Each structure stands twice: as structure tokens, then as C-alpha cells.
Amino acid sequence: LPRSLRILRGTMKGDTAEALGQVAAALLQLEAAFENCSKGKRFFGGDNVGYLDIILGSFIGWIQASEKILNIKLLDEAKVPLLVAWADRFCAHDAVKEVMPEVDKLIEFGKLLQALLNANQAH
């Protein structure tokens, strides 16, 4: 998933269509995993945010940045409704909402990183 997201954001070379397919497939697997793990509760581990929520939640901002850059919807309610609802709950949680990075700032950061990588490769 991380490699595919970097390709989609344009910070890594690769086949965009293939990366998009990989992200879509990974999100479908996460949808099934959420349904299985949560057993109808709000988060992967139950009623409260747990380690798995934090690990997977760290990708939400980058997924949203990729959506904005490419003008596409990866977290699509029609395809992964449980995952979309989980992401909304996770981002709104008191322990998360103050530390979740803004999408535009992530995009700026990604562009800065890419510029630094390009400069290092040129030398």
C-alpha cells in the first residue's frame, strides 16, 4: 500500500493504473478485515481505538492527499462503506482529531520530499 500511494501521489515512478488497482484491492481487503475484526463495533479492536486503528489510521491522510491530487475517490462509500465510516470515526476521535495532519499540508510535504529526493539523485 505505501509504495502504491507514493506512485499515485507522483513521488515515485511506476504505473499509475497498476498502483490504483493495488490500492483498490487493498482497501477491499481492509473492508473485509474490518468487518471480521470489529464484529460490528466502532473500531478494528472493538469499541475503542487500538493499535491496529492507529497503524491503519496513519494512512488516511495520505489516501486523502492522493484522492485530491488525482481527483479520484479511493475511500468510496459505495465500495468500502464500513472502512469509510471507520475512517470518519477514527479522524473524529478526541485522541486523533488534533494530531491528524491537514491534507494540503501533506501534499506540500510530499512535494518538498520529492524535490529533495530529485536534488539528491541529481548529484
From TrEMBL:
SUPFAM superfamilies: GST C-terminal domain-like. Gene3D superfamilies: 1.20.1050.10. The keyword Amino-acid biosynthesis does not apply. PROSITE patterns: GST_CTER. The keyword Acetylation does not apply. Signal peptide: none annotated. Residues 1-113 form the GST C-terminal domain. GO terms for biological process: glutathione metabolic process. GO terms for cellular component: cytoplasm. Keywords: Transferase. Coiled coil: none annotated. GO terms for molecular function: glutathione transferase activity. This is Glutathione S-transferase U18. It comes from Ananas comosus. The lineage of its organism: Eukaryota, Viridiplantae, Streptophyta, Embryophyta, Tracheophyta.
